[in-house]
Specification:
heterodimer, A: about 180 residues, alpha/beta, Rossmann fold, 6-stranded parallel β-sheet, two-stranded antiparallel sheet, 7 helices, B: about 170 residues, globular
């Protein structure tokens, strides 16, 4: 199975300055930072499960931008209510991507419960308009151009890399840099 | 006495709090219905208080005034986002809290006793300034003045701040 790091690298390569990337806590933010540190990235180093609702607020206040939320299976499942809210408010400028490695890798690869949960069905019934489950990753399956609320569940492998650096910016710097482009 | 929910909403609007998220609380009378129906207000019906704070933070980082309106029983749900997000990223929001179980036992129903007694301590602990609206017999004018002062202060400082409101103050 393709590694999450590899998927993140390809997703980041696809982004333009109109794409605001919000990455969830743990390894996902660290990998986004390592591959492509941009002003349009917002690394949420803490507050697990909050990336999606934060994304909803940003999406509604910046309708001309596309908000790409990079969530994990753990963080998505931690706050399913936020997904329901995004769906209810039919937030068409959100692309919600779940990088699903079926585990809490950042804390030592403990199993999550996503292997038995149909995340795409949850998204569909919450009101996400375009929903796709990607088992064999191909970057061409991902689109940032759809004018509808989109959801991708991408199956990725566990590949612990302790060497990967932490996000070097302070939280305050992340906020002040990001505010400049809004 | 006390302040009408309608007037409360008008004051929020006049201070550009047009983006509001929350979880309902009976403390505020028909306020939630008013903001949900108001064409000048984007109200987001969050399912939990952390979601409300996340949404409000998205507006806040986009340089807009934003607030959440919640019941004190949900304060526990915003501790994690406050400590590991808003406080360290310096992302402000005005946190308006309905004070159920005011002062603790025997006020209100048993599920509100513990939080009713501890409500202000959470904000003290986190170093978030707050103002309590505890006098339901105060004239509307006085409450309005106090509210306007708090909203002006928030707009000026753009820092986390809370307003804690006892049942009967907003009707």
């Amino acid at each position: 199975m393709i590694s999450r790091s590899e998927v993140i690298k390809m997703i980041m390569k696809k982004t333009t300055s109109d794409h605001l990337v919000l990455s969830t806590t743990g390894m996902i933010s660290r990998e986004v930072f390592s591959h492509d540190d941009r002003q349009e990235n917002f690394y949420m180093i803490g507050s697990m499960g909050l990336a999606s609702s934060f994304g909803l607020g940003i999406a509604k206040s910046n309708p001309d931008k596309k908000i790409i939320i990079l969530d994990g299976d753990g963080s998505f499942l931690m706050n399913l209510g936020a997904a329901a809210c995004i769906g209810f408010y039919n937030t068409s400028n959100i692309v919600h991507i779940i990088l699903d490695n079926f585990s809490y890798e950042s804390t030592g690869s403990q199993n999550s419960i996503s292997n038995k949960i149909d995340l795409c069905n949850i998204a569909k019934s919450s009101g996400y308009k375009f929903v796709d489950e990607i088992i064999n990753f191909d970057i061409n399956k991902i689109s940032f151009d759809k004018k509808e609320l989109s959801f991708y569940r991408i199956h990725v492998g566990i590949e612990s890399n302790e060497e990967i650096s932490r996000v070097a910016h302070t939280p305050e710097e992340i906020t002040s840099n990001f505010k400049l482009i809004l | 006495m006390s302040i009408k929910a309608h007037s409360f909403v008008q004051i929020l609007k006049s201070h550009s709090f047009n983006n509001i998220s929350g979880v309902p609380d009976s403390t505020f009378g028909n306020l939630y219905n008013l903001i949900d129906d108001d064409p000048d207000i984007n109200y987001f019906r969050a399912n939990r208080e952390d979601t409300a704070l996340g949404i409000a933070s998205g507006f806040s980082v986009s340089n807009k005034n934003s607030c959440i309106i919640i019941q004190n029983s949900g304060i526990g749900n915003i501790i994690n986002p406050l400590t590991s997000f808003n406080l360290i990223y310096k992302i402000p929001a005005l946190i308006i809290v309905g004070w159920r179980g005011y002062g603790g036992k025997p006020n209100d129903a048993p599920e509100h006793w513990v939080m009713g007694e501890k409500t202000t301590e959470y904000f003290e602990m986190l170093g978030i300034p707050f103002e309590c609206f505890e006098d339901e017999h105060e004239a509307q004018e006085g409450i309005e003045k106090k509210l306007i002062y708090q909203l002006d202060l928030y707009s000026k400082e753009k820092k986390l701040r809370s307003i804690i409101i006892k049942k009967g103050v907003v009707v």
